[in-house]
Write a structure and sequence with these properties.
The chain has 256 residues and is α/β, with parallel strands linked by helices. The protein is built from seven helices and seven strands. Helix 1 (19-30) runs parallel beside helix 2 (43-55).
C-alpha cells in the first residue's frame, strides 16, 4: 500500500461538511489521516463526509460548533481530543460571505459577523489546539483565506477585512510557534466552484454557477475544491515551509 502524506495523523477540519472544507477532509483522509469534521448547521452533510471517510478505512466523526463562539469551540475541542487523543492538523475552512454592499451601505453588524467567523474563530481554535500540538511529532495549521484578503473588491470590505485579519493571525502564529516546529500557512483561493462561489459568480457576471466560467478560466476550468485540497495536502507534509501564503487562482480570475 502506498504511504499517504498524512499517515497516522489526526486532522480537525473546521467547516468540513461542505465546499472546500469537505474536499480537504476527504483528501486528508485519502492521505491517511483520521478526521474530525466540524460543521455549524448541516449535520446531514457532515455525516455524509464522515461516512465517505469511514468507507475509505479511516476514523471520522462529526462535531457541531459555531466557530465564532469560544464556548462551543472549547466544548468541541474537548470532545475531539477525548475521542481522537490529539490533533496534529488544524484546517480552518469555516466561512461566510459578505452581502455585497458598499461600505456606506453596510450594516454595522456585518463586519463583526465576518470577523468573528473568519478571524476570531480561527484564533479560538489555534489558542485551544496549538499547545497540545507542541507535544505531537508534527503540528500543522492551515488557514483558508482568499485572494480578496490582499486584493479587495468593491462591495466586499467586510470579507476582505476578515481575511486580512486571518492572514495576520497566521503570520504571528508562524513566528511564535517556529521554536516548537509547528508549521503555519495560508491558502488563498480565487473563485472556487462551490455554493459560495456560485453566488459570487452570479452576482458579478449573471451566470447560474461558477463552472459556467470554465472557458474563461486558466487551464480551462474555474478552481475546484479539490485544487485547494491538493495544496493543503502538500503543506501538511512538506518539511520546510511555514509562514507562507499560497494563492490558488490559476494566475488569473475568470471574473475579469
Amino acid at each position: 500500500m502506498t504511504q499517504g502524506r498524512a499517515d497516522g495523523r489526526v486532522a480537525l477540519v473546521a467547516g468540513g461538511s461542505r465546499g472546500i472544507g469537505r474536499a480537504i477532509a476527504l483528501r486528508l483522509a485519502a492521505e491517511g489521516a483520521d478526521v474530525a469534521v466540524n460543521y455549524r448547521r448541516d449535520a446531514e452533510a457532515a455525516e455524509q463526509v464522515v461516512t465517505e471517510i469511514r468507507a475509505a478505512g479511516r476514523k471520522a466523526s462529526a462535531f457541531a460548533a459555531s466557530v465564532d463562539d469560544p464556548e462551543q469551540d472549547a466544548a468541541m475541542v474537548e470532545a475531539v481530543l477525548g475521542e481522537f487523543g490529539g490533533v496534529d492538523i488544524l484546517v480552518h475552512s469555516a466561512g461566510i460571505a459578505s452581502r455585497g454592499q458598499r461600505v456606506t451601505d453596510t450594516d454595522p453588524g456585518e463586519p463583526l459577523r465576518l470577523m468573528a467567523t473568519h478571524a476570531f474563530g480561527a484564533h479560538h481554535l489555534c489558542r485551544l489546539l496549538v499547545p497540545q500540538m507542541r507535544e505531537r511529532t508534527r503540528g500543522d495549521v492551515v488557514l483558508l483565506s482568499s485572494v480578496a484578503g490582499a486584493n479587495p473588491m468593491a462591495g466586499g470590505a467586510p470579507y476582505s477585512m476578515a481575511k486580512a485579519a486571518l492572514e495576520a493571525l497566521a503570520g504571528s502564529l508562524a513566528q511564535e510557534e517556529l521554536p516548537h516546529g509547528i508549521h503555519v500557512n495560508v491558502v488563498a483561493p480565487g473563485l472556487v466552484a462551490t455554493d459560495m462561489g456560485d453566488r459570487l459568480a452570479h452576482a458579478l457576471t449573471g451566470v447560474g454557477v461558477a463552472a459556467e466560467l470554465d472557458a474563461k478560466a486558466p487551464f480551462g476550468h474555474v478552481c475546484r475544491p479539490e485544487d485547494v485540497a491538493d495544496v493543503v495536502a502538500f503543506l501538511v507534509s512538506t518539511p520546510y515551509v511555514t509562514g507562507q501564503r499560497i494563492t490558488v487562482d490559476g494566475g488569473a480570475s475568470p471574473l475579469r
